Amino acid sequence: MLTDKQRTIALAALAAAPFIAMLTWAAISHRAAGSIVTLLVTSVLCWLLLAGCTRTWRYLLLAYFPFLLASVAYAGYTVGFGIVPGHTLAVLTVSASWEELRGLWTVWQGKWLLLPLLALLGTYLWLAWQTPVTPIFAGRTYLVTRVLLGLSVPAVAFAAHNTQQLIDGVALNPIVGTVMFTAGQVPRARAEIRGEAIQRLPYHATRAGTAEEVHVLVIGESARRGSWSVYGYARQTTPYLERIKDESIFFTHAVADANLTSLAVPMLLTGMTPEEVLSAKPHGTLLDLAREGGYFTTWLVNQDLGISTAIGVVADELVYPPDPQMTFFGRRVSDSALLPAYERALGRGGHSRFIGMHIMESHWEYFHRYPPAFQRFGDPSHLDSMSLLLKGGSIFPDLTDAYDNSTLYADWFLQQVIEQARKLTVPVTVTFVPDHGESLPQLDDGAAGHGQAVYSAAQFDIPAFIWANASYRAAHEAEFAALKANAGRRVRSHDFFYTEAQLMGITWPGAAPGRSIAASDFRPDGTSAYLIGGVPNTIPDGAD
């Protein structure tokens, strides 16, 4: 049997464990002094507030138990993933399906920790119940409380001199951080997922026919047309696409409307021109159009979800795989993480389906966009996140090698998408179009990456194609013939909104005439500007 002193020490250690973990993590991760002081002060104030409400030691310790559960989860996530719970976790919390949660549980390596953790929590609860019902604010405790409150005043003044450190320190407190997460981040994430960021207006769309069809749109990332062998690149980077070239429509003069994802994707999904996307807010997306036309919509995202939520993308099903290693340059999760959900969406028969995918593809860092099995060109193992800005040595060819490997992997990914779709007997199309291209210094006169305010053809000349199965080609001969006829004409990002709508057989009163590549009256847009680094401009004559 434990003595009173042993019980007190054990309870104090268990109760303080999440706070000690957060304090240690903050120190190791070099958090500012103001943040650490704020963590200490808010921890003391939380305990004093709870003590003031409960008045006795037993009731204090029992009342703290739910907060202990939340604090353990909060601290565990922070220490495990290197970041306090925030927007990404909130989005996953409100959007993850039970299948995804079961999948995460299956692959989680830390399951073995749960049993000892539950044992410790059970021990805490038992010890708390054994604690006498004695008053807290009596004798020495009353004096200690007054001293702590007095010390809090200069500590708060010190922490408050830097607002950012103050906010950071508050978020480090596992109790306050949990409240902020559940009361702030989660509702905001739920609002984003519901598309409440925009004022949605109905399209009043209708669909010709009711037969079951499936249409897939894959939005790529940083895809450079000149690096795809299906377009003539010397290295065989797209062997699969070369094999299906005769059953697909490859657009030879596809041009991105912008060289920034945050501008290009909204135009792809809304049909807004460059001038419109700079001056107005969208009032609906391709997914809204599809839903009005009777399609079940699925949106699979392995990208910055903020790009989708900013324009109000809402789908019947959203899949956003968690990524504990996400960096400034994007997600580390492979695009293949979307394939299980994609296969489930394809198999959801009985009604027409629109499946959209937004993938990482060839976004910098190229060397993180493919698994080791696709390391076919060169050895870019010594590249790092800053290599895109460097010169000299083998940097330029190494960047090309890494990029080509990412393209090879994208080819494999598209093979999985198309071959799974090929198994269906109903009419199916798969459309691929990236947000923009990419400059490689070895191939583009030293230009690197994308988004600069100086025109680089490789950032605008993009690969794009549409694959259709035999059922679709037979059921929609006119559309497929128009696609063939327009394959060599200049097509732009915002044209694909109207094209995808026509592929789905959807019409609406406000549709712009002549904008669909699948229409015989398609007219290339020669009047809208291009957004070069976000600035409206023209591109040189003769550029694709």
Description:
With about 550 residues, the protein is an alpha/beta fold. It has helices spanning about 5-30, 35-55, 55-80, 85-95, 100-105, 115-130, 140-160, 165-170, 175-195, 240-245, 260-270, 275-280, 285-290, 305-310, 340-345, 395-420, 470-475, 475-485, 495-505, and strands spanning about 205, 215-220, 250, 255, 295-300, 315-320, 355-360, 430-435, 465-470, 490, 505, 530, 535. The strands form four sheets. Strands 3-9-8-2-7-5-6 form a seven-stranded mixed sheet, sandwiched between helices. The protein has a two-stranded antiparallel sheet with strand order 1-11. Strands 4-10 form a two-stranded parallel ribbon. Helix 1 packs antiparallel against helix 2, helix 1 packs parallel to helix 3 (about 55-80) and helix 15 (about 340-345) runs parallel beside helix 16. The longest helix is centred in the last third of the chain and has 28 residues, at about 395-420.
- The CATH architecture assignment of the largest domain turns out to be 3-Layer(aba) Sandwich
Computed over alpha carbons, the radius of gyration is 28 Å
What overall form do the CA principal axes indicate? elongated
Strand order of the largest sheet: 3-9-8-2-7-5-6
The residue fraction in helices comes out at: 40-55%
Largest sheet features: 7 strands, mixed
Name the quaternary structure: single chain
Low-pLDDT regions: none
CATH class of the largest domain: Alpha Beta
Task: State the CATH topology of the largest domain.
Answer: Alkaline Phosphatase, subunit A
- Please name the fourth-level CATH homologous superfamily of the largest domain: Alkaline Phosphatase, subunit A
The proportion of residues in beta strands is 5-15%
Please give the count of helices. 19
> What is the number of strand segments?
13
pLDDT averaged residue by residue: 88
**How many angstroms does the end-to-end distance come to?**
82 Å
The total tally of domains equals: 2
Q: Which structural class fits the helix and strand makeup?
A: alpha/beta
